[in-house]
Amino acid sequence: MPAQPDACLAALAAAFPPAALLQGGAIPARNLQDTSYLPPETPLAVLRPDTPQGVAEAVRICARHGVAVVPQGGLTGLAGGAHPLAGAVMLSLERLAGIEEMDPAASTMTVRAGTPLEVIQRAADEAGFLVPLDLGARGSCQIGGNLGTNAGGNRVIRYGMAREMVLGLEYVLPDGTLVTSLNKMIKNNAGYDLKQLFIGSEGTLGIITRAVLRMQPKPGCVNAALCGMESYADVVALLGAARRGLGPMLSAFEVMWDDYWHEVTETVGVRAPLAGRHALYVLIEAQGLSEAVDGPRFQSWIESQFEAGPIGDAAVSQSMGDVAAFWAMRDACSEFGSRLGPHVAFDVGLPVARMDDFAKACKARLAERVPNAFSVYYGHIGDGNLHLVALSRGAAVQPMALISATVYETVRDFDGTISAEHGIGLLKKSYLGHTRSPQELALMRRLKAAMDPQGILNPGKVFDMEDKA
Questions:
Q1: How many helices (H) and strands (E) does the chain have?
Q2: Which residues contact 65 (CB under 8 A, 6 or more apart)?
C-alpha cells in the first residue's frame, strides 16, 4: 500500500504523549546514525514508547499507514542495522528499560529490551550471579539490540553466544501483534522454539520487548595469563591443551598478532606486560570456584605448558589488577578510531586452523590492491572469531569499498563467514552470498515475506527482497 506519512504521524501523535514522539529539529543527533560510519539520515520521526503495549501500538499504526519502522537500541552496532531510513519511523527502546524480576530459584532475570547490558551485569553480580555476555560497549548497548544481533563478546568459548542465555522472549510482530512467552524453564520442547526466529534477525522479523535471561553462578576467582608465542601451530596446540587441562574453567582465549601488539604498545601507548617481541600473543582467562583450589591449578597448568614448549614467555596474574592489565592489551582496539584515524573494522569467522593463513593472505592481498595498505589482526580465536582493522595510510578518503571487497573475498576463499558477531545490517548485505548459499538466501526471503508481507520492519537490512546478484 502507498505510504501515508502525514496520517501516520497524526495517529501516533494522538496515541502517544508529546515527549514520546520527536520530529524535525527535536530529533536528537544520536538518533540520526549508529556507529557504522554511514552518514546521518533524518527519519520521519523518532518514537520512544515505554511499555511493550506501546511498542505494539506503534507498529500497528505504522503498518496501517504503510510506514516503515526501524528499531533502535543503544546505537553501538557496527553494521548499520539500526541506521535510520528516510521516511521511516525510528522506534527507540531507550525508555523501555528496567529489570522486572530476579528469580534466584530459577536463576533467571526478566528484563526490558532497552536495559543497558552493564545494568544487567551489575544486578546479577549484586544478586550473586553472573550474566556472561560482555562487550566493550557494555555501558551503552541495550539487551534488545544484543539479542537482535545475537551478540558474542569475550567469553563465548565457555558460555556461548547471546542466544544461549535466553529462556523466554516477548516480541512484536510486523502487524503489531504482541507475543508474550516469558518462559523460565530450560527444558521446554512444546512445539517450535519461536524465539530463535527473532534472536539474530536484526529487527527484520519482529521487535524484542522483554526477555528472560538465564544467569550463571558467580565465579569465585579469575586467573589469567598473557603468553608470547612463536608460531600459530603452537597457538592451536595451546588451545587444545587449555580445553583439556582447564575444562569448563576456560572462559577466554584471545589471540593478538604481532602487528596488533605493535600498534597497541607504540601507537596507543598501552604498557606491555611482556618484554620482548613475539610472533603472536595469547590471553587465557579461567574462571573458577575457589582461589585456594583453582588458583594453584591454573598456575600448575601454565607451568606445565611452559615446560612442554609451546609458550615462549608468559606473565601470570597475581591479582585482579593484573587480569585487568592483560585485558587492557586486548581492549585497546577501542582506541584505534582516535589513534589510527578513519579505517574499516571487520568481524569475521574462520576455521581455527586456517586463521593465520587467512591473516597472511589477507594482508598480502590488501598490500597488492590498496595503496599504502595497513592492517592488524586479533580476536576470539577460541570460538573462531577474528577481528581485523584495515586502512590506506595517508588517504584523504578511505577506499572502503575496495578494502571490504578484498577482505570478504578472502573470507570466502577460506570458507569463513563475513559476520561472526556484529550482524549484517546495511554494510555487509551485498556480501552475504559469500557466506550463505542461494537456497539459504531464498529461505530467508520466504520467511521475511511470510511474516512481514508489507516489508514494514527494518526494510533493506540484512538482505534485499529481490535477488540483485
A1: 14, 18
A2: 3, 4, 5, 7, 8, 11
* Fold designation for 99-217: 3.30.465
Q: How far is residue 445 from each of residues 67, 81, 292, 309, measured CA to CA in Å?
A: 20, 17, 54, 51
Angle at the Cα of 81 (from 72 to 158), degrees rounded to 5?
95
pLDDT of residue 339: 83
What CATH architecture is 5-92? 2-Layer Sandwich (3.30)
Residue type, 326: F
Cβ(34)–Cβ(77) under 8 Å?
yes
Gyration radius of the chain over CA positions: 23
Q: What CATH code would you report for 221-334?
A: 3.30.70.2190
Q: What pTM does this model have? A: 0.93
* Maximum distance among all Cα pairs of the chain, rounded to whole angstroms: 73
Give the angle 138-144-148 at the CA atoms, nearest 5°. Answer: 105
The residue to which cell 582506541 is assigned: 335
Neighbours of 122 (CB within 10 A): 14
Tell me the pairing of strands 45-47 and 69-72. unpaired
Of 243, 252, 178, 185, which Cα lies nearest the Cα of 214? 185
Question: Domain boundaries in the chain?
Answer: 5-92, 99-217, 221-334, 340-432
φ, ψ for residue 215 (rounded to 5)? -90, 155
Q: Which residues pair with 102 in a beta bridge?
A: 109
C-alpha cell at 179: 507475543
Beta strands in 114-215 (DSSP E): 129-130, 166-172, 178-181, 207-214
Instruction: Determine the pLDDT at residue 57.
Output: 98
Q: How many CB atoms lie within 10 A of CB 67?
A: 23
Helix (H) or strand (E) holding 260: helix 258-262
Measured in degrees and rounded to the nearest 5, phi and psi for residue 10 equal -65, -40
Q: Identify whether the C-beta of residue 268 lies closer than 8 Å to the C-beta of residue 218.
A: no
The CA distance from 328 to 322, in Å, is: 10
Do 129 and 120 meet the contact criterion of CB atoms below 8 Å apart? no
Determine the Cα–Cα distance for residues 206 and 71; give it in Å rounded to an integer: 9
Question: CA-to-CA distance for 377 and 270, rounded, in angstroms?
Answer: 17
Blockwise average pLDDT, block size 10, the chain, 469 residues: 91 97 94 87 97 98 98 93 96 98 97 98 96 91 97 92 97 98 96 97 98 96 96 96 96 96 92 92 96 95 90 94 94 84 92 97 98 95 93 93 97 97 94 96 97 97 81
- Which pLDDT belongs to residue 253? 96
Burial class (CB in 10 A: 0-12, 13-18, 19+), 151: buried
CATH node for 340-432: 3.30.70.2740
Q: Which residues pair with 208 in a beta bridge?
A: 171
